UniProtKB/TrEMBL annotation:
Pfam family, any one: Plug
Subcellular location: Cell outer membrane
Protein name per its UniProtKB record: TonB-dependent receptor
Xref: PANTHER family: HEMOGLOBIN AND HEMOGLOBIN-HAPTOGLOBIN-BINDING PROTEIN 1-RELATED, TONB-DEPENDENT OUTER MEMBRANE RECEPTOR
Keyword set includes Cell inner membrane: no
Principal location: membrane
């Protein structure tokens, strides 16, 4: 650990130490429900109010902190891969996660809405979690709720293919202070601390998490530069070479509660971020990126505001950046780029450093009314101001900002920020919305949920998205759900404002993508210990935004140019065989079709399966094993490579804790059989830039220990 890293971590832990270890939890109505039913049996993301997952008007999964500990997960994506119908694919750029729901996939993944404590963390630039995502550790997570299917009637833009809500620990959740460390493969070193206490009438909680790794070392045998070398007679490529996945993350979260008020803030600091297989699928082992993501929110919630009213008001702020720590080599030193129209040999490589800075401010008021018999009415209004307020770029190609003439190969890096030659236009977006929802108890066994949300955007107009859900308690053990919903995905600024890019250009006249979804779901509780669920779905995805070739043939411009339909099923099993054994299993099958080619959608799993067994050897020791299969992925229409191989990975976790739960530890073995698992790389006619696909990590091992006090 360097001096600066140690200083930063030490400061965070010192701040933790200022909080008293004595804690008396303030119990809310939601806490009481969770205590009564168990937190994996309740969900709030489906309607905005806590309710039984069996009767929730959505197909949903809940994973709590105990589940995460049992499976030995240290990072969010390891948890999400266990959700039925959700596959965590990988992008070549930084190996960023692509959360693929039911065959809906795109490289930047803006069709999935990720919430932290109910607040979106989407970027304006690409509509995703940010290019410098760098993962999210799990020690601060209290529970994860996942909805498969649309959620725009409640959450608006990008709640499209699915919604993921991460609830972080509050002070009342931390019943014992905790400090832990973890180490393992790829020179990975982690540390975390959790502290909580009371000060006057305030309940306080703070969590610090530090993560450092060199990243996996799997090799890329050939990249885009390899192909250019073969044509130009050069030898500039860094392939064969390892993917660049170094990370240095610091996450700090603070929670303060007093009466009906709650203040939360968080910092996600990313440094030394390696860019995976390269921004242009040409290996760049030296480039590093950084990002700072800061969020804060203040919430007033009074469940008994008056006799029949539950009122919540909230303001929040989110600030995020994408910054270069050193030069990004789009192509390496010695590249001859004549064949792609960039005019010759670049002795220092083709260098480009695009940077962006955003801030998002939100305000909303939500109210629930229960005076009407058999109706639970919920409504809300809100305003969002999102501002991509600064764009910076340095590069050694394109027009000279002084002369306007093209920079010749070999030119030094110049700063084109605040000139007409920067890669992206700065700008902002305003969104005003209103929504209304009614949960109508038609009869003892029937419940109808109907909702509607209207959004007005300053840059592309308005959109209205309804939902209807009929839930029938068919018997004491069986619940049947019939669901319909519409959703939209707002165009990202990279699709509307990109300029001066040698490859892709934005289009300010884009319409939002739309989705209509139909689902039939069955939830069967055979016994208190055995649960089955079956979900059938069909969707229609329209106005897909794609970059299509321009008449010149040299560039592509964003257009609403695609459509896709999909259907499938998801099976889920949770069986607590006895006090010693629990088995969880799920299987998902989907058939999605690109209507332009009348072919199955490329790169997405046609089927996937998951099997986990948890064996309680004693009060102190648990052994958890899980198998994950990913199957039936198709190549793109013109791709002439062999079929994408299926893969199955096996993970084992051994957990120990002492009788008093004062300390514990785990040993985690991932990909125990050292399976050669790969995610598909894109096809670039006439060849793939990375012919052998993107290798995932091989066998790896970690050990951790924690102490509670």
């Amino acid at each position: 650990m360097t001096h600066s890293r140690g200083k930063t971590l030490g400061l965070g832990l010192m701040l933790l130490g200022m909080v008293s270890p004595q804690l008396q939890a303030n119990t809310s109505d939601e806490d009481e429900l969770l205590a009564l039913y168990g937190d994996t049996e309740m969900i709030s993301i489906a309607t905005g109010s806590l309710q039984s997952i069996t009767k929730a008007p959505a197909v949903a999964t809940v994973i709590n902190a105990d589940d995460i500990r049992e499976m030995g997960a240290s990072e969010l994506d390891q948890v999400l891969e266990t959700v039925p119908g959700l596959h965590v694919a990988r992008s070549a750029l930084g190996y960023n996660p692509i959360y693929t729901f039911r065959g809906i996939r795109s490289n930047y993944n803006p069709q999935v809405l990720l919430l932290i404590n109910g607040i979106p963390i989407s970027s304006l630039y690409n509509g995703d979690r940010g290019l410098i995502w760098g993962g999210m550790p799990v020690n601060a997570i209290e529970r994860i709720e996942v909805i498969r299917g649309p959620g725009s009637a409640l959450y608006g833009a990008d709640a499209f293919a699915g919604v993921i809500n991460i609830t972080t620990l509050s002070g009342s959740d931390i019943t014992q202070n905790e400090f832990g460390v973890r180490a393992g493969s790829y020179d990975t070193q982690d540390a975390w601390g959790k502290l909580a206490g009371e000060w006057h009438d305030f309940t306080l909680g703070m969590i610090v998490e530090f993560h450092q790794t060199d990243g996996q070392h799997e090799l890329i045998g050939s990249d885009l530069q390899s192909g250019l070398d073969a044509l130009a007679g050069t030898s500039a490529s860094n392939a064969p070479g390892a993917v660049s996945l170094s990370r240095e993350n610091l996450d700090i979260r603070l929670d303060i509660v007093k009466d009906n008020w709650q203040f939360r803030s968080g910092l996600q600091r990313r440094r030394n971020w390696g860019n995976g297989a390269g921004v242009a699928e040409a290996l760049d082992p030296d480039n590093r990126w950084k990002s700072d993501r800061f969020n804060a929110d203040l919430t007033y919630h009074n469940a008994n505001f008056s006799d029949f009213w539950d009122l919540q008001a909230q303001i929040s702020y989110f600030d995020t950046s994408t910054e270069a720590e050193n030069d990004m080599h789009i192509f390496p030193a010695g590249s001859d780029l004549t064949l792609i129209g960039l005019g010759g040999v670049y002795p220092e490589g083709l260098i480009g450093n695009p940077e962006s800075f955003e801030r998002h401010t939100r305000a909303n008021i939500t109210a629930s009314y229960t005076r009407l018999e058999k109706h639970h009415i919920r409504g809300g209004i809100g305003y969002v101001f999102s501002d991509l307020y600064k764009v910076r770029e340095t590069k050694n190609f394109g027009p000279d900002p002084i002369t306007g003439e093209q920079l010749p190969p070999g030119s030094p890096v110049v700063d084109v920020s605040d000139t007409p030659y920067v890669y992206l236009q700065e700008g902002n977006r305003e969104n005003t919305y209103i929504y209304l929802q009614d949960i109508w108890h038609l009869a003892d066994d029937w419940e109808l949920t109907a909702g509607l949300r209207y959004d007005d955007y300053s840059d592309f107009g308005n959109t209205t998205n309804p939902r209807v859900a009929l839930v029938w308690s068919s018997s004491r053990k069986l619940t049947t759900k019939l669901l319909y919903g519409k959703a939209f995905r707002a165009p990202a600024f990279a699709e509307t404002r990109a300029i001066n890019n040698p490859v892709v250009l934005g289009n300010p006249d884009l319409d939002p993508e739309t989705l209509s979804s139909y689902e039939l779901a069955f939830d069967y509780r055979a016994t208190e210990r055995l649960r089955f669920s079956l979900n059938l779905f069909h969707y229609d995805w329209r106005d897909i935004i794609k970059f299509t070739a321009d008449a010149s043939g040299n560039t592509k411009t964003a257009n609403n140019a695609g459509s896709q339909t999909g259907k499938g099923l998801e099976l889920d099993l949770d069986w607590r065989i006895n006090d010693l054994w629990q088995v969880k299993a799920n299987y998902a099958w989907q058939d999605s079709v690109d209507e332009a080619t009348d072919r199955r959608t490329s790169q997405v799993p046609g089927s996937q399966a998951y099997l986990a067994a948890n064996w309680t050897l004693s009060d102190r020791v648990q052994l958890h094993g899980q198998l994950n299969w990913v199957m039936s992925r198709e190549r793109e229409a013109l791709d002439t490579r062999d079929s994408i191989d299926d893969y199955a990975t096996l993970d084992l976790t051994l957990n120990y804790r002492d009788d008093n739960n004062a300390w514990g530890g785990s040993i985690m073995l991932r990909n125990l059989t050292d399976t050669d698992a790969r995610e598909p790389s894109d096809w670039s006619n006439p060849v793939a830039a990375i012919p052998d696909d993107l290798p995932l990590e091989g066998r790896n091992i970690y050990a951790q220990i924690y102490f509670k006090f």
